[in-house]
Amino acid sequence: MNQHFNMELIQQRALLYLLNFLEKRHYRFTVITPLSHQRIFMRKKNQPTELRSLKDIFGWNLPFYPEDLDPQLFLILKNAHLIHIEQQHWLSAVRVASLDDQLFIHSAFPTVETDAVFFGPDTYRFYYHLKQYVLHHPHPVQRSVELCCGASPVAIAMSRLLTDTAEIFTADINPKALFYSQVNKMFSGIDNLHPTYSDLFSDLDGQFDLIFANPPYLMDVHERQYRHGGHTLDGTELAFNILKTGISRLRPQGSLFLYTGIAISHQGNRFLETVDEWIKNYPEFKYNYVEIDPDVFGEELDQPAYQHIERIAIVLVTLFAA
Fold first, then answer.
1. How does residue 2 score in pLDDT terms, banded at 50, 70 and 90?
2. H or E stretch at 224
3. CA angle, 229 as apex, 223 and 231 as ends, to 5°?
């Protein structure tokens, strides 16, 4: 136990050193879809180059030689087991992305591990729409929580819009996500954010002015935590559970903001039909449902679980008092 704690502390310090190192060099990296990333990765990997850039190493996660990296940074990451050697090259175990001019640690590409912590185009879209919602929200937010937070980039970026006295909780069942959340929190310098191990609301007390979430919404055969949204409701079981459990955790003027993907078949939208039926039990509440992208993750339609699905759409669901 002590050995594990010591390594976690070593890695925490190493990651903070890395983030400060990159910030001083004005590092920025925008994450793209895995398929596009793979194309750029292969293009860059096959190009001859004298030195790998910081974006090559910590953005594109390309293989590199020790001389490509600052010697002190290389040694710190090596001792923390945050870089490893593979086929005579070194690889970073993490990736660093930027959101709203802030840097965030998350899992390296490709995110194949069951407990990988993902950051992608959905992160940017989720943050943009949530930001617009909060800016036009008529009620103050003093206590909020992000469920399925991952590395917490959205909650940390959103903290700029809230008062210094506002409490912000970020919850996840993935210990690695909470570790990265803690590192990202420390680097951001905010004190009012609390990464919490919780299966949705299981370890969270009280009610909230704002509940927000971008949960996993795919039917993933490997059941990776950042992708798999459950076997029922065509991958939206987790999204629906957030609505069902969140409705009793809202303060009188509170609201729930859900960004998720919906699998739509030739028979219709099972998620929307289920929500329509469920909300009848709560006449004191209303919800809005808006489709903001009609077609994402088209490659998933080739998978066996999606043979009855025609498209996957990105939607926003907001729940609030009538």
1. low
2. none
3. 75
